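Task 17 of the worksheet. Students: predict the tertiary structure of the chain below and write it out as structure tokens. Keep your answer in the requested format; marks are given for formatting as well as content.
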Amino acid sequence: MRKRWLVPVGLAAAALIATGCGSSSNAGAASANQLTTTKIGSATVLTDSKGFTLYWFVPDTSTTSNCNGQCSKFWPPLKGPVTAGSGVTGTLGTIKRADGSTQATWNGHPLYTFLEDKKPGQAKGNGKNLSGGVWHEVTLSGSSGGGGGGGYGY
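Model answer:
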């Protein structure tokens, strides 16, 4: 009789875990898409939930990413939607990419990480002229030489 209860309980538990019910994964999912900030030099920059620097691409518009195909392998788009963590200012939103996926935006700029940033606090892509345009870290305050991403070309 004991075995009869183990199988249904095990299946029920597996079903709850698979659907996200009865687990703490919902809390983790919310923070997984939360933007944060960090200091790099004298600048406060926008980062993803893992602390990696976020970038904007000069050729983009507020509705279109111009980094697709090979470009997006080096500059992975930040999946949206996202939420603002402590210290994050500006307007967060999303756009639909050419491949149909949803990309997060900040103040109308589609957001990306950079493949060469190997750990939080790096900004190796800032000021690079690659993939048909210049890349800038998203600065919330201070001076990083890349500008704050506010209003360029929109």
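Marker's comment: The longest strand covers residues 34-40. DSSP finds three helices and ten strands in the chain.
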